[in-house]
Amino acid sequence: MALKAHQRVLLQLLPDGLAWNKAPDTLLADWERFLGLPDCDIGEDAGIDEHQRYVANKLRMKPSLNRQFYIELARSYGFTVSLSTLPDNQWVTIVTIETHVDYRPTHVLDPVTTPLRIYYAGILECLLNRYKPAHQDFRYVYADKKEKG
Question: What Pfam family is a match, any one (predicted)?
Fold first, then answer.
């Protein structure tokens, strides 16, 4: 209780204006808006801890064109991936998702262009496509180890 009173007094000492947001509850929302979050509809129903983690990840992110950036980006969201280039086309990268990802089979109500399996890794695909160069094409392969053995 004393902390809230102390916090309120310190907030009242700040000058007026938009740069000095006096409502501590809206500070996280301001950072998310500044950073362009949520990325790919990630965390819309997540708790405050998840939102803080997304903000911290985005602040620490140093986008790059090398493969290690994409591997680390996927790892920060809980996926293990490997990247390889097609031998006959340097502009196509095969992204092999080694983490088990649930899927559902295609059914009659899906459009004709829908793959036979619809994987629930749309967040990963959206993130990698968002940060890849415009001339690069990512093709996703789901290597489910449970089916192999």
Answer: Phage_Mu_Gp48
